[in-house]
Fold:
Amino acid sequence: MKKEKPGKFPFTRGLYPGMYSSRLWTMRQYAGFTSAKESNKRFKYLLKNGVMGLSVAFDLPTQIGFDSDDKMAEGEVGRVGVPISTLENIESLFQDIPLEKVSTSMTINSTAAILLSFYIVNAENTGVPLNKLRGTIQNDILKEFAARGTYIYPPKPSMRIVTNILEFCDQNLPKWNPISISGYHIREAGSTVEQELAFTFANGIAYVENAIKESLDPNKLGKTISFFFNSHNGFIEEISKFRAARKMWATIMKERFGVTDDKAMMCRFHAQTGGSTLTSEQPDNNIVRTTIQALSAVLGGTQSLHTNSFDEALSLPSDDSAKLALRTQQIIAHETNIPNYPDPFGGSHLIEEMTEKYIEKSFKIIEEIDSMGGAIEAIETGWIENQISRSSYEYQKNVDNKTNIVIGVNKHKDETSKNIETFNIDIKSADKQIKSLKTYKENRNNLEVNERLNNLKVIAKSNNNIMPAIIDCVRNQCTLGEISNTLRDIFGTHG
Structure:
């Protein structure tokens, strides 16, 4: 058997011949809390400390399409991320940050079209051409139905929005990744390694099939698709999983969709260390867990990485813990010599055998999903969600009966707990956000707002791409909640 080389189809050993010896992975740190102004300070702090790309966490109301002053948002504004209701909020979030120089990742799904529109209009207003914007918007709604739950509309109109974003970016944002198909949250919900791979790629197949129906070229689209995987416990297993992922997606794109362009077959992915593996008990142990998980992501060939902060099982990360998480990546990059060797575990009997085992088992699951009619049907019947729930139950049962050891939780417990200074949310910032939003709504041209929202209704009822109409709404000071509610009126809600 001819030995495969890095940078050659099916890319098991890495996407590029030299991998990190020619260019390091992008070091990101996920951040967003309390207010746009405070989040902006954290972004600048991270950039000063060597972060190479920004990654935005949004609060729950923003994720599910409610303004900060909505009754549905009460008690949740700024809790788990930054609240974004208006163009003013996004302007504050990125104030004095050069959008043409920084790659921005936004973890947002059901309101992805709106947040991307905010980002686009902010770029226009600051004189940054759209062809200079670099970054990623998650825009992976199928995973929300199966594992995470921050959906708004039913699957079919949700898929239409996803495809509209793909089409718009194809024509207007050449350096932007319009979708990041996420296995991360599938794994966080309790899936196995094989399920993380299979369900992620089954969703990817659905997105590509839908895009092809709308006349998008998979040879072009494939170059803009990215993925988001979990770097979980199981050092050898995770390295093998990342290698398997590249081979699986390259095979899918070539054999299922007839893609001929090598770049369109590449499984480019961001990795994040496993949030669900962090423990509130003995939180210092999380530094060790995160380091090992980061190593497996790098040894597995990730293009981008976020390392969790050790205090995240207790609160949002502090400045110091976020910096330590970033330093973990920097030490791996600059002090270990690991980047000098593409796929250093390639050729290992164990690694190669495990890689092939994951490929075989994951493709069997995809075949089962195909027999149901595809990912959307498997999600609508609840099959995928049930499979994840069963795996999650088995894992927790093994922790409870000590088959799976978690240090500090079911073995080597401490009777005394260490006091750790955690990050505290400023409740007054949420009040300021709500107050400023009400002022914003009072001082704008509300006749113009209503006209733009009515136009969005017309477009949503048609087969036209909704992105230009949403951008028009943003330019004329419509809020995230108003745009979401307009689409709710047309598309309805799920569940």
